# Entry
Amino acid sequence: MIKIMKYGEISKDEIFARQEQTIDVSQIVRDIIDNVRKNGDKAVLEYNLKFDGAQLDSLEVSEEEIEEAFGLVEPKFLDILRNAAENIRNFHQNQVRTSFIINEHKGVVTGQKITPIEKVGLYVPGGTAAYPSTVLMDSIPAQIAGCKDIVMVTPPSKNGKVNPVILAAAKIAGVGRIYKVGGAQAVAALAYGTETILKVDKIVGPGNAFVAEAKRQVFGQVSIDMIAGPSEILVIADGKSNPAHAAADLLSQAEHDKMASAVLVTDSEELAQAVSCELERQIPLLSRAEIARASIDNNGKIIIADNLRDVIAISNEIAPEHLELMVDNPFDYLDAIDNAGSIFMGRNCPEALGDYFAGPNHTLPTSGTARFSSPLSVDDFVKKSQYTYYTEDALKAVGDQVAFFAEKEGLTAHARSVTVRTEE
# Structure
């Protein structure tokens, strides 16, 4: 049963604590990365057999396999994928940055140049659930950014095939190349390249503890989007909220995995008790009831505060991945929300809208990192270069100031690089 606690009556540690990964997989991952780096395709194929039970002759998904998979997916779902892709594209097109140039005064030009990252690798999880939504969310911003090579890795089934809905989403999204490999070995293959798998410049996408640790270890060799932790939802709800709706929304994240966190913060004790009862009624109805039960019992919380001001302060301290504002006039409170990955406004906006369809990205900062980081966006797939131009006269006009500044830092060669020009 979910824990109910009153703000101000228990320690902040109890309120704000998150369950942390307790298994250290760093050495296992390091060994996998080293093996893939040294042995390429051979190591990847061996890991496919060891971890996924898939005996493969080829790592790359063929065009025939993609077409076959596309034909296996029901037309209704294909239409939904197309509609979702359009919404995601429309939202992310508004994130495009442009280069700029500044003519500050005569003889001086500064500017910024936006360049797409050339090669990007998308990690799409497999295992207990297939996520075609991740294909759309990760690939479409990269396409809008103008990345030249966009490749995808995803674990194969024991029969050596990739889930058809994953391949259908990839076809709709226009992903170029797809490789049958998952886990830390997939991250290693993208970071260092193999005989078959393209070496990329950046890796994005969520995964399990092994994938997260692999991304951590290859960072620096390549860029990464973020280290994703367990899924999270925080629902802010007042006393007028429907407890069945609040409970259902909490469970929408609790069913992800046993480490997921579902939190309700409210100013109504009556709602808190009603939501607790609703959770007990709804959990047995779920196909992933065992996972949701473990998540709610171990990580779930209902926090009761005196007023909505305190409720919002608690939410900002937790900095959740997903935040629902289940109140009237939610836009009145938007400016007060400082820390959240994605915000769902009002009583008719369940978090699932963002997971699949609305358009904003669902790859979000977790584990409180919404305090300083942002959802995946077009910005993640571009680089910014700055440039400076000075004429001879413009340099002479400021040369003494630059040289003096350099001397103050004890860097005489810096100063000399200016004066050698201005004293000529």
